[in-house]
Structures are given as structure tokens and as C-alpha cells.
Amino acid sequence: MAALGGAWRQPLLLLLFAGLAHGASAVFVVRDDSGTACIMANFSADFLTNYDTKSGPKNATFSLPLNAKVLNSSSCGKENASNPSLMIAFGKGHKLTLSFTRNATRYSVQMMSFVYNLSDTEIFPNASSKDIKTADSMTDIMADINKKYICVSSNQIHMNNVTVTFSNTIIQAYLSNDSFSKEETRCKQDETPKTTPHPSPPPTHTSPPHPSPPPTHPSPPHPSPSPVPESPSVHNYNVSGTNGTCLLARMGLQLNVTYEKDNMTVTGLFNVNPNKTHVSGSCTPQLVTLELHSEGIKSLLFHFGMNASSSRYFLQGIELDMNLPDTKGLTFKASNNSLRELQATMGNSYKCNAEEHIWVTKAFSVNVFEVWVQAFQVEGNKFGSVEECQLDENNMLIPIAVGGALAGLVLVVLIAYLIGRKRSHAGYQTI
């Protein structure tokens, strides 16, 4: 059983400056019965929630307040019985929960859930429902055992009608010395992009090796990693129906599959080769499906849904049925039809030059490269106005800042030159 470890604060210089653009960070601690910390977390979180009113759908935006509290229901977990969890309450009945798991080498926030109360009129004015809603999703938050996870950059977690944006984040579970470790694991968003071939990272575009999603219980030792394939080829995958084109998609696809082989947990990366892939699909008013059949892949389905009230479409489901290599005919199947990825307004297109990582299940995810997609309303077989992903917008800040600094430096040098030139003529008189 876990005891309450109330919120506390300490100076964290690294996060102080980065936090200026976001809500202030708060620190939360979960302790066991002996008073020893097992989970520590410091982060700011911004929420975007879509809800219905009598006048139509609206978006609510709010931040995790500094007076948020750790609940007594938080837990350090019990070996082979339950996993650690951090439960944070704020406002009028809102609760954010981070559930952890680990394997022999890494731990992760396996699942994140958010419970929100639509009867809170300060956040959800004029809501047509007073219900309590729940949204949840797997996350890419993971770190090596006995290291803290650090991510100063923004990291979005999509959970049905809720998007949580974390920033200035330090998290560590399974603590060994009652405080944050001196060693750290950096998130992909904080690392410098590389030009080497991409393995399977969490949802961003950098290229250090991606670990397999940690299982609920400790797994057997991993074998030596298999060679990492190069980035997949970017190709057009379009779908047409009786009324014309309903899906324009241009992207590179890579499958990240975790499975058991010879009593060991194996993670395989498989590129979808467009030259050996058959493309088909279907168009209906409420659902657009892209269906791919390729080498070893019996079927790979992408389902795009829409929200008519908010006039937005999104990737809502992925299904995979494939043969596993070198396993004597074993197959792998996975599906998830509650995704909310690649979202854009109807009539517009969604584009992301950065690599995106879409978790489908605990054992299966899809790496999407240079995606440009538009579903349902496609005019003249051409992409509509572009809505860029958050990752691309964040990446633009760096060249803008560098360009601004260079422009300022040039201006200073020019002013200094003009002043110096004026003074050099001051000692001479006209004859």
C-alpha cells in the first residue's frame, strides 16, 4: 500500500527558463509505507479538451495548477501484483493518472488516463452534459532503470477527445535512493536530429535506437539486436470510390513489432516496400479505409474517421496481420480503433516532415515518415491547405531564433562600422 507523498517544490534551474513559455511546473512524490519515495515527477501540463454545448462543439484549454495534489490512491505497487501509479487531482473532480511498468532494463509510463468533470463550469462553460468523462492512451515516456527521464521540449499525448501537452518534464519511478538520480535518459524531442538511418524511436524524428515497449512483468534477457533497416521509401497510397478520391496519402511506413522467439523478447523493424505492396481501400461517408498487402504482411489497415460536429478527421484505427520471420509460421495480429492521430480540419491536409511514432498496442507501433494525408473531402485529387504537425512547428523555432540572433549581430556590426567611419572623418576639415 502506498502513503500520500504531497506535492513539493525545489529549484530546478534547467526547467525554470524553459517553463517561461508554459504553465509553471509542479513536483509530485509518491511514498511507500516507510516514507521512502518510489515515484518523483516534475512537469507542467496543458490540456486541450473538446466538449459539446447547445450551440455546438467547443474546445477547453487549461493547465495543471500548482495546487494539484497527489492522491492517497497513488501506489508504489507490489511485485508481481500491481504496478506503481501516480494519481494527481485538481479542480472540481479532475484526475490525471500515470501508470508505470518495467522490464529488466527500462521503465515506462505504460498508460496515462485523464478523468474530467464536465460539470466544472469554470473550465467547461455551457456544457450540454454534466457527465464525468475518461480518456486514456499509451505513452512514449520511458527511461533506463535508475535514471530520471528528462524532456524539456513539448510532448503531446493524444487521448480520444483530450490532448495533454507535457513540457519541462522530469519523471522517475522505481527510485533506489529516495531522490532523482544524477543520471538521465533524454527524450527524443530534446536530442539533435541525425542523418543516420532511423530505427524505431518514440514519436519524434531523431534516430537513437528505440527499446521495445516494456512488458507488464520482467521479461527474459534480450538477444543481440537485429540490423536496423534504413528509413522506408515514401510513396503515394491513395483510395478512390464511386464518388471519386476519398484519401490522398504520401508517407513512408515502418512497423515496430515485439514478440516472443525462443523464450526471448524480440523487437523487429519492418519497412513497408511500396514496390511490392498492393494498395486498395474503401470510401464511406463516415469511414475511409486504406488497405495494404505486402511481403509477409497479410493485411495492414488504416481507418480514418471523422467528427461531424467539429468538422475534423483523424486516423482512428490501425489493424495488422502479418507473418513473423524465422518463427516457423507464427503470425502476429494487433489492432486499435480508438486512436486520434493525424488530425486536421475537413478540406485541409495534415503534413509532418518529422518522423511520427504511433502506438497501436503495447507490442506494436507504426513509424510514419514524411506524412502528408487528407481524408474524406478531396477536391480535384489535390491536397488542400496544410495543417502542420506540432513537431514541425517546434523545429522551426530553432532556425528562427538563430536567424534573429544573426540579424541582430549584423545590425550591431553595421552600427559600429558607421560610428567608427564618422569618427575617422571628424579630425579633417574642408579646405
Summary?
With 431 residues, the chain is mainly beta. It has helices at residues 13-18, 390-425; strands at residues 2-3, 26-32, 37-53, 56-63, 69-70, 85-90, 94-102, 106-117, 132-137, 142-144, 148-151, 155-159, 162-173, 184-186, 235-236, 239-241, 244-261, 264-271, 278-283, 288-294, 297-307, 312-323, 331-336, 341-345, 349-352, 356-361, 364-375, 386-388.
If you had to describe this structure to a student in words, what would you say it looks like?
The protein is mostly beta strands and 431 residues long. Helices cover 10% and strands 46% of the residues. It contains 2 helices and 28 strands. It has helices at residues 13-18, 390-425, and strands at residues 2-3, 26-32, 37-53, 56-63, 69-70, 85-90, 94-102, 106-117, 132-137, 142-144, 148-151, 155-159, 162-173, 184-186, 235-236, 239-241, 244-261, 264-271, 278-283, 288-294, 297-307, 312-323, 331-336, 341-345, 349-352, 356-361, 364-375, 386-388. Strands 1, 2, 3, 4, 11, 12, 13 and 14 form an 8-stranded mixed sheet that branches. Strands 15, 16, 17, 18, 25, 26, 27 and 28 form an 8-stranded mixed sheet that branches. Strands 5, 6, 7, 8, 9 and 10 form a 6-stranded antiparallel sheet that branches. The chain is globular.
